[in-house]
Design a protein that fits this description.
By secondary structure, this protein is α/β, with parallel strands linked by helices. The chain has a single domain (6-211), classed as Rossmann fold. It is 37% helix and 18% strand. It has an eight-stranded mixed β-sheet with strand order 3-2-1-4-5-6-7-8, with helices on both faces. Strand 1, helix 1 and strand 2 (30-35) form a beta-alpha-beta unit. It is globular.
Length: 225
């Protein structure tokens, strides 16, 4: 664990964000769960403490959660991504890392979750980068990790996580994956590659439906050193 590191998870009241909060808290990290509604953030933090003895976790509104956090993870639906970033950008400072988990699924326009909508910037992660203040780093990660498997603490997650962005912040986010049993970080190169990774989410959702895998399908890359 890195000393004095705080991980803020905005949208940590949702299934996937809560799963990450549980895993990082279990690994001994300082975790802040953010939400647009304080009562929901407090409830989620209490949920984590109820499952993990000694968990260092608290709940705050999004802007307060993002203030001073080393890494800010955006675990919100695509349609709320821009609004969430705009609501916190005034409190962000150079050197902070913002992790985009968002995927432009067609559910944002009332269509199926197994399809995508186009994003002018190319990907949700690149949209986030276009909205952040100068000096705040954007990294793409965690889109394809099953929420159910994250929350099932008795089992390892068994999934690869493709991490894309500038080299130094990318490596910091890759280190987070080592905190979760079964997760393996894969170096995804520059942020533009998030376009490919995000589209894989729609594919996996379709596979979950076709194969009736309620726990969520994961991905593995073979042949890596």
């Amino acid at each position: 664990m890195t000393e004095s590191r705080t991980i803020a998870i905005l949208g940590g009241t949702g299934d996937q964000g809560l799963g990450l909060a549980l895993r990082f808290a279990r690994a001994g990290e300082d975790v802040v769960i953010g939400s647009r509604k304080l009562d929901r953030a407090l409830e989620a933090a209490e949920n984590v403490r109820g499952q993990i003895d000694g968990a260092r976790v608290k709940g705050l509104e999004n802007a307060d959660a993002a203030t001073g956090a080393s890494i800010v993870i955006l675990s919100v639906p695509f349609e709320h991504t821009a609004g969430t970033v705009k609501a916190i950008r005034e409190v962000l400072e150079p050197g902070q890392i913002v992790v985009s988990m968002g995927v432009p699924l067609a559910t944002a326009v009332g269509d199926a979750a197994s399809r995508m909508v186009g994003v002018w910037q190319g990907s949700c992660a690149e949209l986030v980068a276009s909205l952040l203040p100068q000096g705040v780093h954007t990294v793409s990660a965690f889109q394809n990790v099953s929420a159910h498997r994250l929350q099932t603490l008795a089992e390892s997650v068994e999934c690869d996580v493709v991490v894309s962005g500038a080299k130094a912040p990318r490596q910091q986010v890759m280190e987070l994956c080592t905190l979760v049993p079964g997760l393996q970080a894969v170096d995804g190169g520059p942020l533009a590659n998030a376009r490919i990774v995000e589209s894989m989410t729609a594919l996996l959702i379709g596979m979950n439906i076709r194969y009736k895998v309620s726990e969520g399908v994961g991905i593995r890359f073979t042949g890596l050193p």
